[in-house]
Amino acid sequence: MVKVAKCLKDNGIQPNSVPHIAVLGSGGGERAMIGLLGCIDQLYKANLLDSILYLCGVSGSTWCMASMYEDAAWSSKVPSLKDNLVKRLTETRSSDLESIKWLTQAVEHENFSLTDIWAAHVVYGFIKKIDTTCLSDLKNLDATNPYPIYTATDQVIKHKGDKTDCSFELSPHEVGYSHVGAFVDTSSSRSQFEAGVLKQKTAERDMLYLQGLCGSALADREEIHSYIWQWIKKIFTLGKEQKAAEKKEKEKEEKETKEGGSFFSRLLGYGKEDEEEEDGDSFDDMATEMVESILQLDDCEDYKERAKLLLKILAQCKTMLEAELPEEVLSDEKTHLEDAGLVLNSPYAAALRPDRKVKLILSFDFSAGDPFLTVTQAAEHCKQTGIPFPPVDISEEDRMQPKDFYVFKSENTPTVIHIPLFNMVNCEGDVAKWSETYKTFRFAYDKETMDDLIRVSGLNVANNKNRILQEIWDVCK
Hints:
It comes from Synaphobranchus kaupii (Kaup's arrowtooth eel). This protein is of the alpha/beta class.
């Protein structure tokens, strides 16, 4: 926080308390990886990078993050690291021998899966390095860089239709479910637990595997089958039939997003009303009982009675948590994780954990398609979970011709700055051309293509430095 305060002071901002600022990098394959690299480069050049407390990523953005965090002091030498990374990505050839060697070791793991193969052949093919360090190694380093948070999704919980409790995050200190509050130490992330007690320690997987996991969109059979089916329909079905099917699918998705609610939403009094647990006891009843016990504890002077009340409160807390935790978290022997972009293609869920107290979000969106989908989904997501989030209203004109800077804010919510990668400013009006050039599924970029993307994505920071500083100043008031 000292470094953040100094950065703000250097920019003429002297707040009474230092605001927590998070940068979000969305998914989008190599486009997201290189796009985030360009944004980070310009944040450094604009003397804004040190104001960032959290750096959160989904899918392709995590490839950029992992590459930067290979250096313990990367935030102090971004330009040289950027140049070295571009050189590695464009001039180094991936080695089949190294890939097979890594896979030979990976196959010895009990939970060897297609994610290992994906990491060894596809992700390695993009990032051109097998990083055998572990995420937990970063917790022992000096806090000179923004704190990294990688995100994934629990596939099983997601398939049940729960798009809130399935949010999973991985940081140097802990991994677990963002909304339900179930975490374990990162170094024990692949170990076996029973009733919260470590039963069998298993070694943590390395950063290549983590990048493969975070970018494993094709690991979801339902999603890939749906994608293939949509592709077939575009070729063979009549336009009218296709529109009808798409409308039906959209209505289904809208219905699903309105369902649910997390532990935090009910604890704060939001979400579904009058919803009762299967045993007939509502969550509100359990919360009321616990509050009554706490009040009794405050009034009790006898230490033996206080001890009994304390045990009762602990038991009530355990009951409430178990009632709100997804059944899979408590009962499944294994956790099946996949690309978080399959639910929300930007790491809002991790950044908005209440205990992180983020005041300003700088969201760089590298998604394909609708340039505002992530922020509108985030708003709906927060509505379901009871997390404060500003209203998001996008005009049809902006959807067709996006600008390079949007601010969403209201009283008692974080301020959200949303920046679409390709917009009418940095693309000089030709958004479609740039979007077509940088499709999600394409071969690795050559140096010229990569340099162009770094330049264009960097313009989104360079052109908006003063506006970013103004929003930082506003949250400091």
